[in-house]
Amino acid sequence: MDINPPKCTDIDYINFLIAASNVFSCTEAARCYPDIANAPSHDAFTRCLQRQPPDTEALWEEVKSYVKLKEDT
Predict the structure, then answer these.
(1) How many CB atoms lie within 10 A of CB 71?
(2) Does residue 1 lie in a domain region?
(3) What is the DSSP letter of 4?
(4) What local confidence, expressed as pLDDT, does residue 61 receive?
(5) What domain range includes position 15?
(6) 39 within some domain
(7) Alpha-carbon distance values, 43 to 18, 36, 51, 71 (Å)
(8) How many domains, the chain?
(9) Mean pLDDT by 10 residues, the chain (73 residues)
(10) In a domain, 42, yes or no
(11) Predicted pLDDT of residue 2
(12) Which residues, 6 or more positions from 14, have their beta carbon under 8 angstroms from its beta carbon?
């Protein structure tokens, strides 16, 4: 049985998130590759995200310095 390698990696999705201005979806990520032969589809990005372990604590530690928490006034 042949297994095809993934068309999309976590680095591909991270690069999309860095470049995106206000739309952050797998469909929008796929639109970034319109002129590339055998470009990843939105399903490829979805599968990529499903392969990632859901470690929200590690994610928060990585990004919390960039988040401005709303202060009560």
Answers:
(1) 5
(2) no
(3) P
(4) 85
(5) 10-66
(6) yes
(7) 20, 16, 12, 38
(8) 1
(9) 76 85 85 82 86 78 83 68
(10) yes
(11) 59
(12) none
